[in-house]
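#onboarding

Welcome to the new folks! Below is a worked example of what a typical request in this channel looks like: someone posts a single protein sequence, and someone else replies with the predicted structure as tokens. Don't worry about understanding the tokens yet, we'll cover that in week two.

Example request:
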Amino acid sequence: MVRKTWNRAKRRVYICGHCVECNKELLNIDGGWIINAEHKHFCHDGKDGSCFDNYVRRKNVSFKNENKEKAYDEKG
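Example response:
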């Protein structure tokens, strides 16, 4: 019988953060998560599709509403 002289290191799992939208744990072995310029973490497979896409859509809607309000203030 041949004896092993060393054991292969087991794969370690680290928590890299939590999704801002759905609060899901993001692990280093899962992959499929995004960090934006503001260092917010998002997952690809959230409850309602991609959490990052939902965040961008919501942010764009609020940005468009702010621009419309500014345009009305300048005219009136």
